[in-house]
Amino acid sequence: MAGNSTEPGRSVTSKVAAILMSFTSGRGHALVDLARQAGLPTSTAHRLARELTDRHLLERTDDGEFRVGLPLRMLSGETAEPPTLQERAPFVVDDLCEATRATVMLGVLDDLEVAYIERRPGHQPVSTFSAAARLPVHATALGKVLLAFAPSQVVRMVLTPSLAAFTPATLTTAEQIHRALQCVRLHGMATSCGELQAGRCGVAVPVPTPSLRPRAASRRAPACQAAPASRRPQAAPKPPAAGAARRRKFRS
């Protein structure tokens, strides 16, 4: 018997195909239902469905069911509207992580903090947006590039309270922040080195969207950051960032 299947001789390919074919009805499935329709033990169905989810071929709904993921919906022509940020962002992060071989984050401004997803080099999947995944705006390259292209009232709101100093290198005055934001607008990128954690450096760029230019960005406009090494970055990975962003269209 191959791979602990309920049928002898079944290959991994046939098991994956059986799982995917169970979604031809167009609806989602709970794990037990998925295993039954694919003719697989529940443990095997769970393992394969989890791997397919990690690679975005399947998705988990809020109630725990599995459904077809964005890439398969695009292949079948079922995407009537452009993908949302939450749907498309993991692919941008994957692109940049593969191009830079560095930890990559994609974030947006949310309640004067940076909400982000990330992927580290290796085989781990991209993380998800969550309440715990938050960064300070003023102490990260990602936050500074988002703030540079945010409305002026958002900048004022960020600077109204006293800014926390995480390290001696953290920018904590309005004058320092405004000067840093001017440099970001001039060069189209932001850097940080030891401002949130000593010895940790990063570089970030805004991500263009079809109907949203960086210099007129909303609070939900995304940006990407790469942390190439524990030293001051010599050059920003702007070409791979721009290339990935152009290949991956966002819905603003």
Could you walk me through the main structural features you see in this protein, from its secondary elements to its overall organization?
By secondary structure, the protein is of the alpha+beta class. The chain has two domains: about 10-75, Arc Repressor Mutant, subunit A (Orthogonal Bundle); about 85-245, Beta-Lactamase, CATH 3.30.450. About 35% of the residues lie in helices and about 15% in strands. It is built from nine helices and eight strands. The protein is elongated and about 70 Å long. Mean pLDDT is about 80; it is low at about 1-5, about 210-220 and about 230-240.
**Structural class of the secondary structure composition?**
alpha+beta
Instruction: Give the class-level CATH name of the largest domain.
Output: Alpha Beta
- Major sheet summary line: 6 strands, antiparallel
Contiguous helical run count = 9
Classified in CATH, the superfamily of the largest domain is GAF domain
How many domains make up the coordinates?
2
Mean pLDDT: 79
How is the CATH topology of the largest domain named?
A: Beta-Lactamase
The total strand number stands at: 8
